[in-house]
Design goal:
Oligomer: single chain
Strand content: 5-15%
Strand order of the largest sheet: 1-2
Number of strands: 2
Largest sheet: 2 strands, antiparallel
Structural class: mainly alpha
Order of helices and strands: HHHHEEHHH
Helix content: 55-70%
Number of domains: 2
Length: 106
């Protein structure tokens, strides 16, 4: 439960999307990041529940199973750039992964 995890989540998803995923407003997320939100522990606990996977170097992909976060990032980048890859799994990953911000933007 730390601000570091919240900052990392905001780097990946943006404050508005992080707020939506934890059930709070972007303003609340901004106040948390600035250290101006009173009694932040309850919200930081929710951040930990939703974004705890960011602490690990391994993520669970619903399509590919457990994989290193760098591999996940490659699929993410390919799907953003609409690149074709020989295994074409990035399309299925983009549509299936709850942790993938690309899927939420569609």
């Amino acid at each position: 439960m730390s601000l570091d995890l919240l900052m990392k989540a905001c780097e990946i998803h943006g404050q508005r999307e992080v707020g939506r995923l934890i059930g709070k407003s972007a303003t609340t997320v901004n106040l948390l990041l600035k250290g101006k939100y009173p009694n932040a522990q309850k919200i930081l606990k929710k951040v930990d529940e939703v974004f705890g996977w960011l602490k690990k170097r391994e993520v669970i992909c619903p399509v590919l199973g457990e994989l290193h976060i760098d591999v996940c990032q490659k699929y993410h980048t390919w799907s953003q750039e609409n690149k074709t890859h020989k295994d074409r799994l990035y399309q299925e990953v983009k549509e299936s992964c709850k942790n993938c911000s690309v899927r939420r933007k569609l």
